[in-house]
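Supplementary notes for students who missed Thursday's class. We covered one full example, reproduced here. Read the sequence, then the structure, then the short commentary at the end.
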Amino acid sequence: MSDLVRYDMRGSAAVLTIHRPDRRNALSRALITALAEAFHRATNDPAVRCVVLTGSGPAFCAGMDLDELRGTLGDQAELVWDDAARLSALYEQIFTLPKPTIAAVNGPAVAGGAGLVTVCDLAVAATAARFGYPEVLRGLVAAMVMPHLLRHVGERTARWLLLTGRLLDAEEAQGVGLVNTVVPPDALLDTAAQWASWMAEGGPKALATTKGLLRQCSRQALALEELAQASAAPRLTDECRGGLAAFFDKQPAPWMSREEQSDQVSP
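Structure (token representation):
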């Protein structure tokens, strides 16, 4: 098992901890692979009745590793498509897992990190958690997470999050249905473990069938491949290159007017 994901048992629950705190648990290629392997291990272990996903350090997950992404924005189109396909496959793996899943959100979960929360069955957030999809602010598109976000919060809230790139605090996230409850940080894993123990009282086949029926009832309109392509395509544009360059240089995005740039830096 990779050091990027810690795998522990707590009762009958497998607790997967994203362990890349120096990069705010950003989703590198290696981390995506490690998460896929950890969920596969939990799926095939009969002793595991539920899977809890959490983060190490102050953040849950900061989304895609933008520094790694920046290295693919030249002529490496094939790698860009592959990266999108890998993340799409991970979301689908978690969403279709036959065992219940709980996101224990210890801190900010943004972009792809917020996507991880939405593909879990349940979510409990610590008071310090924040949620949002700032992709458009970098010239990117949060395509793969749209169906899962819409299932939880409805179209009006989804449009606000996806089009403004603004973040919700934990209480706001609970209010719109993105998480089930908010607890103090020291109660986060205890709450997830309690939920896991309740679900372990259900029959394994009954839980898997229930999850399968829920998935059919919320079937998305677009195929996974289409969503992955819609996420990858903007990464090959000049707009994305300029947005990421501005992000790393801590400068306003190039598409902002002079007046907007002035407003952004004013006190």
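Commentary. The CA atoms of residues 103 and 178 lie 11 Å apart. The mean pLDDT is 88. If anything here is unclear, bring it to office hours.
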